[in-house]
Amino acid sequence: MERIYFDHSATTPVDREVAKVMLEYMTEKFGNPSSVHSFGRETRKAVEEARSSVAALLGAAANEIFFTSGGTESDNLALKGIAFANRKKGNHIITTAVEHHAILHACEYLEKQGFTVTYLPVDENAMVSVEDVKNAITDKTILISVMFANNEVGTIQPIKEIGQLAKEKKIYFHTDAVQAVGNCHIDVNELNIDVLSLSGHKIYGPKGIGAIYIRKGVKIESTQHGGSQERKLRPGTENVPGIVGLGKAAELAKIELDQRISHLTNLRDKLINGIQEKISDIKLNGHKEIRLPGNVNISFFYVEGESLLLNLDLKGIAASSGSACTSGSLDPSHVLLAMGLTHEVAHGSLRLSLGRGNTEADVNYCLEVLPQILERLRSMSPLNANSKLAANNPCSQCDHH
Ligand code: PLP
């Protein structure tokens, strides 16, 4: 059976060119970049070249890029590093209700350390309002952290405007751009971004490597202590294969960006339009236009996202659901709830995230099997008023309402 991967927001395959250069730096070129001999010098050079490639993708200077173990670490470093380094100035942080848990849980930790966090609401499209950000600012605000693009519903936030506001008020502005890098044009100067998180495995690079952009002059302290690697901000022997892999992935992303955006936008719109034409009782989640080029997130009424997911998997299609049932939690996605969806509608949501390897044939295949799966699930659904089962079994598909 053909297998189709529509879960690129979870992770992407490593580009073969990326894997090739990584192998070289795992086998022949294995020196520690801190060593003074030729083995060390060759890996040091590779690390610095990778730093330049990541910087170039963001319009940053190379010395404003620091390598980390991924998006989660970059987010934690941004929040905790800035909070602790600036606590004399103030203890207030502004973020949004739809951030990734790497941000939300780091904020909860900071609240326990005496910081106050404002979690801004979003509208029905998961969009935060610049006016709300403005109104939340107090004389104690030291940091605003708003994600660039949402990992579940794809909505792209008004980053430039929030950055401008932060700049005027002399407050640091961090953005979690894990989903946006490689999918959107990003220039940290044009967008007034002070600190940015990115991750290797979302841009056809390896897992367990990421980077943080920190504008020159931003006061931030390390959250881990050790040697003098990454100018003491992130000590520990560098993950050289990961770093060169990320550097290559960044290089490719820069070259292919326009092509990736147009390819993904085309497939995304084809998929959304096709689903809207073929299936009734659905709701597109996220902003209609201002969304990630490869993100499709739809709630299908009367069905469970999990059953949809399993049925798609049986047909060879890998997707993701908006509820967190598979991770052992009974709660639907905090993002969908923050957008005002009811628990029932949120539970019926499906995320299809497209990548550069996907084709029109993949989309057509999905448009062929999805309506069939839905028809079958809905005919059995106790949530569906037209279902035969509905009258006498209120909740057989889902035991946690
Ligand atoms: N932030 C966002 C928006 C994400 O989508 C992810 C990963 O899904 C992360 C942070 C965490 O990145 P990593 O998996 O590299 O730790």
Fill in the keyword field for this structure:
4-stranded antiparallel beta sheet; 2 domains; Aspartate Aminotransferase, domain 1; 38% helix; binds pyridoxal-5'-phosphate; iron; 7-stranded mixed beta sheet; single chain; transferase; 401 residues; alpha/beta; metal ion binding; PyrdxlP-dep_Trfase_small; Aspartate Aminotransferase, domain 2; cytoplasm; 11 helices
Describe the protein.
The chain has 401 residues and is an alpha/beta fold. It has 2 domains: 4-9 and 257-380, Aspartate Aminotransferase, domain 1; 16-253, Aspartate Aminotransferase, domain 2. Helix content is 38%, strand content 13%. It has 11 helices and 13 strands. It has helices at 16-24, 38-58, 71-85, 101-112, 130-136, 159-168, 240-278, 305-314, 334-338, 343-347, 360-380, and strands at 4-5, 65-68, 92-96, 116-120, 141-145, 172-176, 195-199, 210-214, 282-284, 295-300, 317-318, 320-321, 349-353. The strands form 3 sheets. It has a 7-stranded mixed beta sheet with strand order 2-8-7-6-5-3-4, sandwiched between helices. It has a 4-stranded antiparallel beta sheet with strand order 9-10-13-12. Helix 3 (71-85) packs parallel to helix 4. It is globular and about 70 Å long. Bound molecules: pyridoxal-5'-phosphate.
